[in-house]
Amino acid sequence: MALSQEAAAPVGRRERRKQEVRERILAAAEKLFLRQGFDATTVDQIADAADVAQKTFFNHFPTKQSVFAEFANGRLSVFEETVRAERARKAATRVRLERTFAAMAEHVAEMSELARDLTLHMMRAQPPEPAGSEQLSTLQATLGGLLEDGQAQGDVRTDHDLGFLSELVVGAYCMIMIQWAKDPSYPLRERLSETARFLGEAIAPARR
Length: 208
What we know:
The chain is mainly alpha-helical and 208 residues long.
């Protein structure tokens, strides 16, 4: 037992060291992205700011785009956690949608320039970033689960395919985010709130 504990200790230290270096690279990349934008930032600049060799950078991230994906996935995780929390609460689907959109408006506002730069880069990337396609798929699946719950409790229409409804909701959400990314003066909170209310009415069962 003593031998295995002794062997495990260096491994634990190595993992902590790797995580510290990874976080340092991400912190350096975030500062550079905020200061000069994603496209203008190079791997050399990130490595230099993080005080690591370029080889060390590539040990953690195969490309600059993979750093981008890390930030994008962080924002996506917040969205998933928000929807998961809403699904655990008893509420009408339209209310869950409104609260989800409101929470994301606050989160994105906190990220501000970084969120704007990430959104614009994803929109303009040619060919499209794999992270962007994965995000859309995850957004659709996440909101699809919320809408499926709504169908089960009777406040989401069933005369349209669930995939179509989730595409509709995700499309509206993403368009608002793109508009905000393009225009710093765009009223993000107000538009997301209005969009959530409109979507809540659009996905509700038809009144007879």
